[in-house]
Amino acid sequence: MKVYGLVRLAKEPEYNNGCTRLSIAWNDFKREGHFFNAVAFKKTGEAIYNNCKKGDRIVITQGILANNNYVVAGEKKYGEQIIINQFEFIESKGNVEPHMPVVAERKAPTIDINSDIELPF
C-alpha cells in the first residue's frame, strides 16, 4: 500500500548500519493522533537522521506500508511499518510557520461612491 502525507517525528530518529528507525505521528480529520513505526534506508535515512529531531514535521512523498513480522523466543510477532523512500522537510517544532514563499498581497482598486464619477454598472 502506498503511503504519503504530513507527519511529525514522535521520537528522536535512531541510526544503525545504514537504517534509520523513527516513530511518526499523524493526525486524522478528527484531530486524533495515530502513531506508526517507520524506517528509511541509505541516503534517505541519513538525511532524516542528520537533519530531523523529535517534533519536526516532514512530508512523506513516497512510502509503502509493509509487514514487519518476526520471531522472538519461538513466538511469532506481527506488526507493520512504513518504509520511507522519499520525503521533504517542512518545519521544526520551534518554527511556527512552514517554509512557504511569501506572496505579495494584491490590492483591489477602490471606488469612492460619493464622487460625481459615473459608475459603469
Quick take:
With 121 residues, the chain is mainly beta.
Output the strand order for the largest sheet: 1-3-4-8-5
Report Rg.
Answer: 23 Å
Nearest-integer average pLDDT? 82
By DSSP, the count of extended strands is 8
How many helix segments? 1
Can you summarize the main beta sheet? 5 strands, mixed, barrel
Write the H/E string, N to C.
EEEEHEEEE
Task: Compile the SSE list and pairings.
Blueprint: E1 2-9, E2 14-16, E3 19-27, E4 33-41, H1 42-51, E5 57-67, E6 70-72, E7 75-77, E8 80-91
Parallel strand pairs: 4-8
Antiparallel strand pairs: 1-3, 1-5, 2-3, 3-4, 5-8, 6-7
Structure overview:
By secondary structure, the protein is mainly beta. Helices cover 8% and strands 48% of the residues. It contains 1 helix and 8 strands, in the order E-E-E-E-H-E-E-E-E. It has one helix at 42-51; strands spanning 2-9, 14-16, 19-27, 33-41, 57-67, 70-72, 75-77, 80-91. Strands 1-3-4-8-5 form a 5-stranded mixed barrel. A two-stranded antiparallel sheet has the order 6-7. The protein is elongated. 13% of the residues are buried. The model is unreliable at 96-107 (pLDDT under 50).
Can you give keywords for this protein?
about 120 residues; mainly beta; two-stranded antiparallel sheet; about 50% strand
